[in-house]
Amino acid sequence: MDRKLVKRRGQTKWLVQRSGPMHVDGVIFGSERLINEMDDMVVRQVANVASLPGIVEGSFAMPDAHWGYGFCIGGVAAFDPDKGVISAGGVGFDIACGVRTLHTGLKADDLAPIRERLADALFRAIPAGVGSTGKLRLSVAQLDEVLTGGARWAVENGYGLADDLRFIEAGGRMAGAEPAQVSEQAKKRQLNEMGTLGSGNHYLEIQQVVEVYDAEAAAAFGIEEGDIKVSIHCGSRGLGHQIGTDFLKRMATTAKKHGLHLPERELACAPLDSKVGQSYLGAMRCGINCALANRQILMHLVRQVFSDVAPKAAIRLLYDVSHNTCQEESHNVGGKTKKLFVHRKGATRAWGPGREELPAEYRKIGQPVLIGGTMGTASYILAGTKQSERMAFGSACHGAGRNMSRRAATKKWHGKEVAGRLAADGILIRSRSLRGIAEEAPGAYKDVSEVVESTHNAGLAKKVAKLVPLACVKG
Questions:
Q1: What is the per-residue pLDDT across 140-174, written as a single tens digit (0 to 9) for each?
Q2: DSSP three-state, residue 25
Q3: How far is the C-alpha of 262 from the C-alpha of 52, rounded, in Å?
Q4: How does strand 26-29 pair with strand 98-107?
Q5: Which of 6, 70, 75, 133 has minimal CB crowding within 10 Å?
Q6: Which phi and psi angles does 317 have, rounded to 5°?
């Protein structure tokens, strides 16, 4: 794809002009620096998505965008339910990977004397790493209940409080999940993985709020400077990965039958009204429920650790939102409210004020948008905007976004060196893999502050608070 087709249309908006097989324009959000640093594949993949049948309004990429399988990471696209497609590549392998941020009721001074003990206790209690397993052992029948019940299943089985569910998108349970559409292999991979972090960029982090940008929104979200928060970043583990693998193959195999000409195999998709399209929807929704239940169980483990090490803490859920999904949502298109299937891959839902689906406490402000940074920089909490709903179906960035492959990172850094440097900066790292630390070195990512500033300036979401890491548990 020729970068000459990319034209600036504002401070943080860039147009990929419609050409060739594209049905709509592409739009990339970001500062000039971020755009210049993006790999050329982002432009190509935005254009490829724009050529899919039934796409509505545009093919979008967030400021943290980088190359992915089929869709770029940071890609957003909505499809008409009658004419459009659903793409496994547009959701990704880690279905419903997302962030859950918790209030602790503690301040920085409360944490200081117990920080190391708390980091060690969380590291012991939270299973993490490649193929990690938890204490929970499920039968296939029990797992099917998880796949239909989501976080509600977890709460009903003693992992958390009923009030937690109010602060999870979809109330903690995605309707329409069909366990029968999930392969035996996918279920087998998940039987012992509930309540685990996994590896890669997943983490559990103790954070301190160091800056508040919007006092009204912060008050509504229960955020003050000096607060100690905990953020959990993980997804649907082996089950989600296997669902993605299974359906990428099925969609690629059936594409020709449906008259679909794919610019790249990983863009595999199927008509929404086709048998394989409906099967994927049922399976993907199981993946969403798996991830919601997984983060709910992890939150329960965090509560147990804090009750032992910091009994004065009060763990409450601020919000939980996923960033690898396809969801049926109502949006205004051409002056009419229309049901659309919105793919967000490495992009966070960012609904503005007034949506009835939001908790009453947040409805006036907009949805909390949870942006994970790197273990050496910062994370952010933003609020969704009505402008974002008009611009990109209510979507925002999801993190810093990689600027270097994991392989390249391990050639440049050593895990022990990275952990030592972070410790010198006052950030405790607890990990079972030195290689994993090297792969996730802060330098392997874009500047999260610039990504967030671009998101804010574009109107995709507004800045509410900045949080810095104090301790990080990784696989």
A1: 999 999 999 999 999 999 999 999 999 999 999 99
A2: coil
A3: 8
A4: unpaired
A5: 133
A6: -85, 125
**Residue type, position 288, single letter:** I
Structure token pair of residue 210: 């160091």
- Who contacts 10 (Cβ-Cβ below 8 Å, separation ≥6)? 458
Residue 311: partners with Cβ closer than 8 Å, 6 or more residues away: none
Please write the tens of the pLDDT for every residue from 66-95. Answer: 999 999 999 999 999 999 999 999 999 999
**Cα–Cα distance measured from residue 76 to residue 395, given in angstroms and rounded to the nearest whole number:** 8
Residue type, 42: V
What structural domains and CATH numbers belong to the chain? 3-403+445-474 (3.90.1860.10)
Number of Cβ atoms within 10 Å of the Cβ of 320: 26
Q: Which of 103, 202, 323, 398 is catalytic?
A: 398
Residue 368's beta-bridge partner residues? Answer: 383
What is the reported pLDDT for 1? 47
In whole angstroms, give the CA distance from residue 18 to residue 25. 5
- For residue 443, the 8-state DSSP code is G
Tallying the residues shown for the chain, one arrives at: 475
Residue 330 CA to residue 230 CA, distance in Å, equals 32
Q: What are residue 27's DSSP bridge partners?
A: 15, 60
Instruction: Match 């309540």 to its residue by tokens.
Output: 195
**Residue 113 phi, psi (nearest 5):** -75, -15
Tell me the pTM: 0.97
414 included as an active-site residue:
no
